[in-house]
Write a structure and sequence with these properties.
single chain; 457 residues; alpha+beta; three-stranded antiparallel β-sheet; 15 helices; 9% strand; globular; disordered N terminus; binds heme C
Length: 457
């Protein structure tokens, strides 16, 4: 009898174990630090390596200032001053690593002829930013003006700008990385050989705000829709589709696995101003009640659920989700990029609630950068329909009370701004500023406490 009970008990333990093992862990496991040797190789590969041929000759860099309509430092007598002025003009930040005289986001390489020296954009054009006079790899570049940069650089290079079949960006700081990859992928066959004619993809993705790299380590699914496994190093190689062959992709995969490890090692900068700890403590309770279900909990350990929130619940601009066609996903999933990590075709369609670590530094908010401060994110009637992006990322333009960029509502009609592309207009395709109304019901004091807490993340 005793042995029977004993056996039964042992059986139950095994059964319970099997059941538990079969329940998928809903919470992301504790973040495992990537291999330090891979991180170091990846850091060097990303910051020092150059993976694309030069698009523009060196002379286009020094000659671009003739289109500025204002005096510029002499590129020969004052190369550093010229590089800074060039960076400010187009929204590139000083490189916090040796970059051969170029701002972060640009990289020297050789042109297609194999001889002429020139330069090209790299990952940090979109993923390298600055705040308070300090540059960070992995901080979204919220100043970049792709449209102005492309127009001037091709002109300075004595060439006509290529016809781009989509909007690069209308507002400084947003970029259409999605359409870049759709267009590059549409001229490849599944084996990555070139097609003579592009395949129609039916995708119409909008311009986007880049996500910070320091949250990648918490994610199991990446990109705004949370449909691509975050372990996919191949998916971050899509920019190389501009020129690489299938064999070159295979050769470069280990390098990009290292770069991926480096990205997962990046830490968010800490909030640099004093924090009212009592208010932050009260704010934490508000957060845990109203926000943690989607965004996770923070502290010693980050417990991040990776919640994909359906469009009808989140209510933010749908273009990023609706604009990605099933045909594109099917094509991508048939290529080398997706072999190990296909894009999920069965999951809920919506936006993934992002981890909020370092959120103080990555304004403006939402996937399209439509909301300039945390306070307006948490009080939707106060969001501006039209606002100017800050003239720089210096702290004089930063608002530590509302957390984000100081802004003024711009009336409709001519802006009077010297730079039209500083205008963010929420009525444009993909740039709607509605949705995410979860903070609206809070009282003003509660909201202020919550914002104080968010500074601690
Ligand atoms: C033209 C701007 C641009 C360039 C250049 C660029 N990215 Fe991105 N990146 C983006 C945008 C925008 C997103 C968000 C895309 C989305 O979800 O639709 C993104 C998303 C990502 C993500 C996912 C992050 C997350 O948390 O979900 C990673 C990782 C990434 N990029 C790495 C890279 C690497 C590595 C390079 C260089 C090889 C690169 N990117 C080049 C704009 C860019
Ligand atoms: C029902 C799920 C849900 C709840 C509840 C929720 N959020 Fe979010 N949150 C999201 C999603 C999804 C996004 C991304 C939306 C987008 O980019 O379009 C987001 C975006 C954000 C962002 C912008 C992130 C960025 O990088 O731009 C912040 C900040 C934020 N939420 C804070 C909060 C706070 C604070 C609360 C509590 C009052 C809260 N959220 C409640 C789902 C939620």
């Amino acid at each position: 009898m005793r042995t029977a009970i004993h056996r039964l008990r042992a059986g139950l333990v095994v059964l319970a174990f099997l059941i538990l093992a079969a329940i998928p862990a809903r919470r992301a496991p504790a973040v495992e630090p990537p291999d330090p040797a891979a991180v170091e190789r990846g850091r060097k590969a990303l910051l020092e390596g150059s993976y694309l041929r030069a698009e523009w000759a060196d002379a286009a860099f020094t000659g671009a200032s003739k289109f500025w309509g204002e005096p510029a430092p002499d590129p020969v007598a004052d190369p550093d001053g010229y590089a800074r002025a060039f960076g400010k003009r187009y929204g590139f930040h000083p490189a916090p690593f040796p970059n051969d005289g170029l701002p972060m986001g640009l990289k020297r390489s050789v042109r297609a002829d194999g001889k002429t020296r020139g330069f090209q954009v790299d990952c940090m054009a979109c993923h390298g930013g600055s705040i308070g006079g300090k540059s960070y790899v992995g901080l979204p570049n919220t100043q970049i003006d792709y449209t102005g940069f492309f127009a001037d650089l091709f002109r300075a290079d004595g060439r006509r700008s290529p016809l781009v079949p989509f909007v690069l960006n209308t507002a400084r700081g947003t970029t259409n990385a999605g359409m870049m990859s759709v267009v590059l992928m549409s001229v490849r066959n599944p084996d990555l050989s070139m097609r003579p004619f592009p395949m129609p993809m039916g995708s119409n993705l909008p311009e986007l705000d880049a996500p910070p790299w320091w949250v990648l380590k918490y994610k199991t699914k990446m990109y705004y829709d949370g449909r691509t496994p975050a372990d996919s190093s191949r998916s971050i190689m899509q920019f190389l589709l501009a020129e690489k062959t299938a064999d070159q992709f295979r050769e470069l995969e280990p390098t990009f696995a290292d770069i991926h490890a480096y990205l997962k090692s990046i830490e968010a900068p800490r909030y640099p101003f004093p924090i009212d700890q009592d208010a932050a403590g009260r704010g934490r309770a508000v957060f845990e009640k109203s926000c943690a279900g989607c965004h996770g909990t923070y502290g010693e350990m980050v417990d991040y659920p990776g919640e994909i929130v359906p469009l009808d619940v989140i209510g933010t601009d749908p273009a990023r989700i609706a604009g990605l066609s099933d045909r594109f996903v099917e094509h991508y999933n048939g290529t080398w990029f997706a072999e190990k990590h296909p894009v999920d075709v069965d999951s809920e369609r919506g936006y993934q609630a992002p981890p909020l670590v370092g959120i103080w530094a990555s304004a403006p908010y939402l996937h399209n950068g439509a909301v300039p401060t945390l306070r307006t994110l948490l009080d939707s009637p106060r969001r501006p329909e039209r606002y100017l992006r800050p003239p720089s990322t210096d702290f004089e333009h930063y608002d530590p009370r509302d957390v984000g960029w100081k802004f003024a509502e711009v009336p409709e009609g001519p802006t009077g701004a010297k730079e039209p592309r500083r205008l963010f207009d929420a009525s444009r395709y993909g740039l709607d500023n509605g949705g995410h109304t979860f903070g609206d019901k809070l009282g003003e004091a509660e909201r202020t406490d919550l914002i104080e807490y968010l500074k601690t993340l």
